[in-house]
Every structure is written in structure tokens, then in C-alpha cells.
Amino acid sequence: MLIWFVHAGCSVNFEFLNYTIITSRCKGPAYLPKDCCAAFKDFACPYADVLNDLQNDCASTMFSYINLYGQYPPGLFANECREGKDGLACPALPPSESANDTGNQITHCPSLLLLLLTACSLIMLF
Asked: What are phi and psi of 47, to 5 degrees?
């Protein structure tokens, strides 16, 4: 029995986002985890709700552009950026911001973000 998973496109256009928040702070050849992971979280946390949704291709699209613009080694963020068994924790928006802008609320689901990081890293290896 074959089961097909249909992935929807991504509601965020990652192609035209500004990746300098990562590329200016996460530099090789050392790729310091403190700098790279903080930069990654600053970039990705505002999109945690769509990145954690397994019904779309947002995470793979985002990682494709991060690697395109930063030319990072495969699996860099998945291997280096861990904050415990539940993955990365994204801070919540202040109430004043989230009350008026529900489209940009951050969902706290770090285990899915870690899963997506790992899956995308493995996909890029092959």
C-alpha cells in the first residue's frame, strides 16, 4: 500500500528574505555554534509556525536558501544548534505585538523544529 503525502507550497516567500542576519554572523571556517545558532534562531523563529507545519515545504525551502546564500556545510545548523532534547526554543512575542499581528505569532514547538532541521540536513546530504 502506497501512501502519498501531498505537501503544499509555503505561505512565506523565503526567496526574497534578507539572509544577512545569518551570513553576517555565521562565518567559516570555524562556524562558531554560539554565533551561528543565535543567528539562525533570530532568522527562523519569526516563521516557526510555518516551519513546524509538516504539511508544507517551508523548512526545506528555507534551508535551501540559507545554504545558497551562506554556502554552509550540510547539516551545520542541525548538528550544532541544540538546546536540549526538545530542540530549539523560540521566544514568544511581546503581548503588544502579538495582539495586533496574529499572522506573525510564534508557535512554541521546538521538537518539530529540530525534526525539520535534521530531516533537511539529511536530505541535503543525498
From this structure: -110, 15
Rounded-to-integer distance, Cα 23 and Cα 88, Å:
19
Q: How many CA atoms lie within 13 A of 14 on its CB side?
A: 21
For residues 106 and 49, the answer to whether their CB atoms sit within 8 Å is yes
Rounded distance, CA 106 to CA 27, Å?
27
- How do the domains of the chain map onto residue ranges? 18-92+103-125
Residue stretches of the chain with pLDDT short of 70: 1-8, 86, 92-126
Per-residue pLDDT of 93-123, as tens digits, reads: 544 343 334 344 334 444 555 555 555 555 5
Q: Taking the alpha carbons of 103, 10, 65, 80 in that order, is the dihedral positive or negative?
A: positive
What are the phi and psi torsion angles at 31 (to 5°)?
45, 65
